[in-house]
Every structure is written in C-alpha cells, then in structure tokens.
Specification:
The protein has 259 residues and is of the alpha/beta class. Helices cover 36% and strands 19% of the residues. The chain has a six-stranded parallel sheet, sandwiched between helices. A four-stranded mixed sheet has the order 1-4-2-3. The longest helix is centred in the last third of the chain and has 15 residues.
Length: 259
C-alpha cells in the first residue's frame, strides 16, 4: 500500500526531512500560491515528477481528507536483511576497537518513536536497527520527520522473528542486553563494552517474555523523580549513550558534539 503525504505544509516538510518521493499529485483545481510554487521548485530540484490530477484522484487516495489539493507519494523504504546489519556492525567493530551497537525494537508501534530512536542510534554510531515485520511501526513520513532525516542513514532490518535475529547476533559475537524495569541491576553496572545488541520493548508492555528469555544481560535506568518511567525513545537514548560512554576510545575523538 502506497504511503501518501497530504497537504501543502506536510509535503514541504517531507522534502525538508529527506523523504524519498515517487511523485507529487496536484489537483487541477488548485490555485498557484506561494506554497504550491515552493513545492513545484523542490520537486524540480529533486527530480520528482509532478502530475496534475482531478479532485477525485486525490479524494480516492486521501485517508485524512486534508490534502488541500496536494499529495506526495513516498517511495517504499529500502529495508535490509539482518545479515547486512551484522556485516555493518562487524566492520564497525574492526574500526572502533571492538565496539559495535545494534538496536532491536520489540514491537514499537509508534512511527514517531521509531524515528526518534533512529535519530539517537545514528548519533551514537549504531550499525542498524532491527524491527519485526508485523505488529510494529514501519518507516513512513512520520519516521523521517521525527528522525530529522537520520533514518536515511540508518540501516533497518525487518525480520519475521526477533528471537531468531537475537540468535544470529549471538552467533556473531554480540552480547544481547535487554532494557527492562524488572532488572535487578541498573544499566551503569551492566558491562556494555564491545559488540552489543540492545533490546528496547513495546511502549506499553516492555520487552516480551520470550525475547527476555533469550537475552544475555538485563539493565534498568535509575529513576530519582516522582514519575518512574520514560518514553521509550528517551529511555533508548539514555541506554545508547551508556554504551557509547563505556566504549569511548580513540575512535570517538573525532566525533562532533551537539552540546
């Protein structure tokens, strides 16, 4: 099923965040205002075909009914296989004193959270994300927006079975660390040096029992406030930076800080 972006501002935003587009649909009834002209210029710059279509063509494709006479059809995201993520991580470990990070998402359902996770993963130098191909968020326009375009630089593997993916990573020399509030150790006390596969759980239920049973290590984030929980993207960011802190070495000296 094609992913359509509806409305003038959302289409302009999609260009800004690097959403790959197949074509732009503009209603033949739409008046050429400044935003339409901007969309036309961007489409020409990025060599995205523009088609003038009747109102019915937009209405038939619209889900929210907010197209404003403009829709963009996004290209399907190019997922990779788990083997490609492992290969990228192996190469990373060779260049980074044995350090590599892969992040597995156990049925994260919000595309915005997926994008925020991808943004943090790219920032710490993770080698890829692994997500299930069912009952899970997929990469769409919302993902590009919340990742600030970082998803374009982050390999994402879709797998039919997370437990099998964990087994593949373990065979490749990874220690699999589950972030779970039920852990007895705080993450700071968990050895995250070297090749690590970090597992983050669903927004509501956390890491599933079957996945937990196949992990090697478990850690939780310490909480000092009154609200004893974080958004999964925030929690994942803290966990990823703990991996980065524990593996800081000469390979990190050339990195850039946003602080």
């Amino acid at each position: 099923m094609a992913d359509y972006i509806e409305g003038k501002r959302p289409v302009i935003e999609a260009f800004r965040t690097g959403v790959p587009m197949r074509r732009i649909l503009i209603g033949d009834f739409v008046k050429r205002d400044g935003m339409i002209e901007d969309i036309m210029r961007k489409a020409k710059r990025y060599k995205v075909p523009v088609e003038m279509v009747p109102r019915k063509a937009l209405e038939d494709r619209s889900v929210r009914g907010s197209h404003q006479g403009v829709m963009a059809e996004a290209k399907p995201f190019a997922y990779v296989g788990i083997g490609e993520v492992i290969d990228a991580a192996t190469q990373s470990a060779e260049q980074r004193e044995g350090a590599a990070l892969v992040v597995l998402l156990d049925h994260i359902t919000d595309a915005g959270n997926l994008g925020a996770l991808a943004r943090s993963a790219e920032a710490v130098g993770a080698s890829g994300l692994v997500i299930p191909n069912k009952r899970s968020a997929r990469v769409d326009a919302a993902t590009y927006k919340s990742s600030a375009g970082a998803i374009s630089h982050m390999p994402v593997a879709q797998v039919s079975n997370l437990v099998q993916a964990i087994s593949r990573l373990q065979e490749a020399g990874f220690w699999v660390v589950a972030a779970t509030e039920h852990a007895s150790d705080v993450l700071w006390d968990v050895n995250m040096k070297g090749k690590i596969a970090l597992v983050m759980g669903n927004e509501h239920e956390g890491v599933s029992r079957l996945v937990l049973e196949n992990c090697d290590l478990f850690g939780k984030l310490p909480m000092a406030g009154e609200v004893a929980s974080l958004n999964v993207a925030q929690a994942a960011t803290a966990c990823m930076y703990e991996w980065l802190r524990q593996n800081a070495g000469s390979w990190l000296s050339g990195g850039q800080s946003s602080c």
